[in-house]
Amino acid sequence: MDQASPQTIRLEDYRAPSFSIETVNLHFDLGEEHTTVTSVMTLARQRPDEALELNGDELELVSVTLDGHELAVGDYTLTPHLLTIPGLGERATLQIVTRIQPQHNTQLSGLYKSSGNFCTQCEAEGFRRITYFLDRPDVLSRYTTTIVADKAAYPVLLSNGNLIEERDLEGGRHLAVWEDPFLKPCYLFALVAGDLAHIEDVFRTSSGRDVTLRIYTVAEDADKCEHAMDSLKKAMKWDEDTYGLEYDLDIYNIVAVRDFNAGAMENKSLNVFNSAYVLATPETATDANFNGIESVIAHEYFHNWTGNRITCRDWFQLSLKEGLTVFRDQQFSADMQSAAEQRIDDVKALRARQFPEDSGPQAHPVRPESYIEINNFYTSTVYEKGAEVIRMMQTIIGPENFRKGMDLYVKRNDGTAATVEDFVAAMQDASGVDLTQFKRWYGQAGTPHLEVRGTWNEGAQTYTLNVRQSARPTPGQPVKQPLHIPLSMGLLGKGGRQLPLTLDGENDDGPLSRVLDVTEPQQSFTFTGIGERPVPSLLRGFSAPVTMDAGYSRDDLAFLLRSDPDSFARWEAGQTLAKDLMLDLVASYRRGETLSLDPTFLSAFESVLTSTELDPALVALTIILPSQAYLGQQMDEIDVEAIEAVHKFVRGELSRRLRGDFLAIYERLNDRGAYVFEAREVGRRSLKNAALAYLMADPTPEIVAMCRDEFFRADNMTDSMAALTLLASSASSAREEAVAAFYDKWSKNPLVVDKWLSVQAMSDLPDTLERVRELMGHEAFSMRNPNKVRALVGAFTQSNQPRFHDADGGGYRLLADVVLELNKINPGIAARMTGGFNQWKRFDPKRRALMRAELERILAAPGLSKDVYEIASKSLA
Ligand code: 0A1
Ligand code: ZN
Question: Are residues 578 and 625 in contact, defined by beta-carbon separation less than 8 angstroms?
Fold first, then answer.
């Protein structure tokens, strides 16, 4: 990279392309030394006079032929990232031949090799690493792709669309021709060539067409694709039922690869997946993995409409496809599993990743206004907050109008590259609701804060909610405008009875739950006919991605935890109760006081734990304490040691005081029937293992033996990992025994080995850093494989607050060393890892100085990629 002047790309500079590319004919000659790519494009001029500027990256240019005449070197200009050809007419046929070396492509962007097979990843800007092209999402073309390769080594040849020709060639080679009838941008192009096995199924669409479904993997993994196939069929059916959206080709292929920068990719009719989101058997995958596969398979499938048929005009609009598609996959998972649990999981993830991002140095709006490297903007803000923005629109206009809005959006924009404005306009036109102010959610970064206070007026029999909204400045946005925030709420009277919500001025009795439109910095809402002092239930279902101070007392929270009919709000009350209690304990700890557990909390906790009405899955979610990282987020200055001590104390106290309850639950739920992935069973396992975790917080030797027993007898990965996780943090001899036995059993299965790496990286024992360093040299680890890097280094730096932030700064040194090594191999992953320092300003002065020094060391390194440069420099700014 030209480190002195990394270029910033801005939304305000958007210009439509000067040429369109109507058809693209690609010919790949795949080889071991190099691969030759011949591209023939038909171009049509869109603006007069301008030269054609094609993007390229690490390409060897062999020849350029314009309308049948090969150009001489002086006829064009070539710089490292641009091929410029002046003097083109209205229409032109351009042939470009390039040579690339996929076998040396460690960035995993463009055409690369994984387990000896060829595959591609073109989003966002990987296509320019294959051939010179207008590599931008608003250039939509028709693709025909010819693949030539050695038949023995690469028997399977795949690309987008329909297979139209297949034949053998001389010299043991063969050829396949694929034609995609749909217009698409180049980021959706895909090619796979390899020695792959597959499973096959058929889906009959609502209009009666049969679609052939195939999932390809390396031979040894073909027996682990059934759950992915089931998930795909469910997703296809759900999109027909829910949105009337039907699949549009007769073939849908998924290829699982072991080396992949992200989760999966929605290439038209040829998804390429990280094998972690395809492969699952009860023995090798956890319940969380089964869920993750179902949701990612659905996500990529849903992109066929929201992403592919309607794509993005430019990368600033990324949330147009990603926020919407995450929203759709969340809705799907809620329908497949339990809606309440899904919502809780989604909110937990948002708080764990997006909230810190939104209050830190990388904060950006859902639609960013500038970037240096677009790969750095595949963020939780664009994805998860983007999904919340869609959800709020649905809440404001109502589900029926939302569906009408989706129909209108598809009708208006099918086959085009659209913008966020197009989406909001469809919702507004379909519902008649003015969304002008709402649109600010797309442009304003930062998590808004609500302060809500209620007063009951006994004489007037009214209840008034006073709501204030505010937002802190974020980089480049010192002043914030008020947002349109949907606040879903109810009022609970004695015994948890819901009171009718009649706003002042309304005649009839109002509903029991309603959505208030908060639009002003300060606003009040008065309800009439309220004959008793109610407890308000606020932000039901987490109706907006905000933080909230509702001024609840511990008794209010315990009451809501017991009686709120909204499952999310009940869970939230429990979390707030635990958070308030633990933050108070942190303050006591810092004052050097002896810690003691509040009896209100203990009894509320016990009544949830022993409840016979609540679904076990919800009990499990409710008794899991807010994480150490989440508690840190609530403090002005994160006190790593105090938080760790308090967490340990509370878990230990609960373990000792409620041992009988935990044991009873564990024993009741620990039946050993055969594994099934089914909501009830998942709930049973999660509560059982949550009970075991509490028991292990202060274990007797018998309890350690029980945990060891669960580990050695488990017939499924959920139980095996639950036990191993606990043993890995226990200072008993069973720790080494279990860790060694697990590797022994699974060393040949890369995804299970990833779990083995993570479990050790997340241990809270004092030797974890040393262990991580050691594992970096283990045969099981490779800096070239993103899954390994995420499993070991990612888990340590992002999911182990106490050990990563150990006071001597060893964790920080390790992370900077890894970033600098990865920077040369895979800048995208290096930049992701650099994000481990994003929160540095939130810690105490000593840790701040240590992290800052590591960030400076990274920035000073020669040959820094723009990916890492952008994250590190913004972090220090
Ligand atoms: N569009 C994909 C995400 C994705 C983005 C970048 C990638 O490579 C750098 C790969 C996948 C999705 O949302 O699933
Ligand atoms: Zn996506």
Answer: yes
**Cα(800) to centroid(ligand 1), Å:** 26
Enumerate residues 6+ apart whose C-beta is below 8 A from 222. Answer: 197, 198, 199
d(CA 444, CA 449): 13
**Where does 375-523 have alpha helices with state H?**
380, 386-397, 399-413, 420-431, 440-443
Alpha carbon distances (Å) from 25 to 29, 81, 143, 296, 446: 13, 22, 6, 31, 45
Q: Are the CB atoms for 581 and 598 separated by under 8 Å?
A: yes
| Ion ligand 2: residue ranges with CB closer than 5 A | 322, 325
Question: Which helix (H) or strand (E) covers residue 62, if one does?
Answer: strand 60-66
Can you tell me the distance from the alpha carbon of 327 to that of 302, in angstroms, rounded to the nearest whole number?
Answer: 10
Ligand 1 close to Cβ of residue 322 (< 6 A): yes
Residue 488 backbone dihedrals phi, psi, to 5 degrees: -85, 135
Per-residue confidence (pLDDT) for residue 673, from 0 to 100: 86
| DSSP string for residues in 761-787 | HT--STTHHHHHHHHHTSTT--TT-HH
Burial class of 740 by CB neighbour count within 10 A (0 to 12, 13 to 18, 19+): exposed
Q: Pick out the chain residues at pLDDT < 50.
A: 1-3
Tokens of 184: 């698409």
Nearest ligand to the CA of 266 is 1
Nearest ligand, measured from the Cα of 257: 1
Q: What whole-number distance in Å separates Cα of residue 114 and Cα of residue 791? A: 18
- Residue 322 and residue 328 in contact, taking contact as beta carbons nearer than 8 Å: no
Contacts of 181 (CB under 8 A, 6+ apart): 142, 161, 162, 249
Torsion angle of C-alpha atoms 538, 542, 546, 552, degrees rounded to 10:
30
Query: What atom in ligand 1 is closest to the CA of residue 322?
Result: 13
| Cα 575 to middle of ligand 2, angstroms | 30
Look at residues 333, 471, 376, 481 and name the one whose alpha carbon lies nearest to residue 8. 376
111, 121, 123, 384, best to mutate for ligand 1 pocket (most atoms within 8 Å of CB) = 123
The torsion of the CA quartet 428, 434, 438, 440, rounded to 10 degrees, works out to 100
Closest CA to 408 of 668, 418, 279: 418
Give me the residues paired with residue 143 across strands.
Answer: 24, 180
Of all helices (H) and strands (E), which one includes residue 6? Answer: none
Q: Which amino acids are annotated catalytic? A: 300
CA separation for the pair 302, 390 (Å, rounded): 15
Among protein residues, the one whose CA lies closest to atom 2 of ligand 1: 265
Q: What's the 319 CA to ligand 2 centre distance in angstroms? A: 9
- What residue type is 805 in one-letter code? H
- The structure tokens listed for 121 are 């990843």
Buried residues in 282-295 as b, exposed as e (16+ CB within 10 A): bbbbbbebbbbbbb
Tell me, what amino acid is at 868?
V
pTM over 0.85: yes
How far apart are the CA of 317 and the centre of ligand 1, in A?
A: 14
**Radius of gyration of the chain from Cα atoms?**
28
The predicted pLDDT at position 1 comes to 44
Amino acid at 93: T
Tokens for 733, please give them. Answer: 């001899």
pLDDT of residue 2: 42
The rounded Cα 746 to chain-centroid distance in angstroms is 27
CB 122 near ligand 1, within 6 Å: no
